[in-house]
Design a protein that fits this description.
Length: 379
């Protein structure tokens, strides 16, 4: 089944009622027919029929063997970091969501795990940082917020040559545009709050595996079962509803983004535009090779910090807010919001400064979005 059909129909098995919409099972526990007999459902933390349908759908979209629907994207990343032991070393993209950096540096470094940050768009640079105790490479591609593109195939081969896992945060593109497991990645994570939800009304995360019979697969099964970070039945149903329109949303958002990126290039007050759909982007060729679309995230720099800050208060249609991926366009000021806690060294290495704005393009009329941006840029 192709993505558009899978997004609409999911992995539904219709019950006796023939209900088109997946039922919401709120039950915390389930009746056993008899001793040593089970319906397949015993306790809601371990399994829930509504959540199961969501997990099967997302696993199918990512072409993975197993998916867990979790309470947030950070819950998914936290589960992944649980796989590693004191003495292990991990490599992370140096351009990375600030919350991931905080979790690594302020929580897991205290457990004896060491982290190095590297430009994962440069495979040779990654190779040079690998140690005998390196056990994982964690990347975002495109990265947040500088839109660097990493070679998933090459990094998967590099990781596996050194008995390491490749973990890909696929939030920025969604499985509609990119399927890292098919390119060699071992684990994919998502902030489901973003494109998979698309309506800014659910906090959710997803963790998808390539191989459930692997040591890491069995370990994650135990961790999720034991720690209980699962998504609620109601939020699972909302996510199933949202995924039905995933392809329609992200395709329109991507079309809008390309028009806006080209428009931004011609504005005197804009000095740099970072969008992987522009042919001049250094990762453009690789992006076309490993993904079927370019997404709708644009970062751009303006002349000075004063202009960047003043723009945020002049928006009429676009919302000044954190998050991304929803039908509403959002403008974010990363250095004060999503990346406020990033170490100064990483900010300098990536070029993330106080002139940078990040635009999550929605599904509104593109002329209205451009008019709003023009008004903010020109005062």
């Amino acid at each position: 089944m192709k993505d558009y059909s899978l997004e609409v129909h999911g992995c539904r098995h219709y019950d006796a009622t023939g209900a088109i919409s997946q039922p919401i099972y709120f039950s915390a526990t389930f009746r056993h027919p008899a001793f040593h007999q089970s319906t397949g459902y015993d306790y809601g933390r371990v399994a829930n029929p509504t959540r199961d349908q969501l997990e099967l759908t997302v696993a199918s979209l990512e072409q993975g063997q197993r998916c867990w629907a979790l309470s947030s994207g950070m819950a998914a990343i936290n589960m992944v970091l649980h796989l590693f032991q004191p003495g292990d070393h991990l490599l992370l993209s140096e351009d990375l969501y600030g919350g991931t950096v905080r979790l690594a540096d302020e929580i897991y470094s205290g457990y004896g795990i060491t982290f190095d940050y590297v430009d994962t768009a440069d495979t040779a640079a990654v190779a040079s940082k690998i140690r005998p105790n390196t056990r994982g490479i964690f990347i975002e591609t495109p990265s947040n917020p500088m839109m660097r593109v990493s070679d998933i195939v090459a990094l998967a081969a590099l990781a596996h040559d050194h008995q390491s896992l490749l973990i890909v945060d696929n939030t920025f593109l969604s499985p509609h545009f990119q399927k890292p497991l098919t390119l060699g990645a071992d684990i994919v994570v998502h902030s489901g709050t973003k494109y998979l939800c698309g309506h800014n009304d659910v906090i959710a995360g997803f963790l998808i595996l390539k191989d459930t019979d692997s040591n890491y697969g069995r370990r994650l099964e135990l961790l999720v079962k034991s720690e209980g970070p699962n998504l609620s039945p109601m939020d699972s149903w909302l996510m199933l509803r949202s995924i039905k329109t995933l392809g329609l949303r992200v395709e329109r958002q991507a079309a809008n983004a390309l028009i806006i990126a080209n428009w931004l290039k011609g504005q005197p007050a804009v000095t740099d535009v970072f969008f992987v759909g522009l042919p001049e982007h250094p990762g453009y060729a690789l992006q076309q090779q490993q993904a079927t679309g370019n997404g709708s995230m644009i970062s751009f720099k303006v002349l000075n910090a004063e202009l960047a800050k003043s723009m945020l208060g002049r928006l009429k249609l676009i919302c000044f807010a954190e998050s991304l991926g929803g039908v509403e366009s959002l403008l974010t000021y990363p250095i004060a919001q999503t990346h406020a806690e990033m170490p100064k060294e990483l900010l300098e290495r990536t070029g993330l400064d106080d002139r940078l704005l990040r635009l999550s393009v929605g599904i509104e009329d593109v002329d209205d979005l451009i008019a709003d941006l023009a008004g903010t840029l020109n005062g």
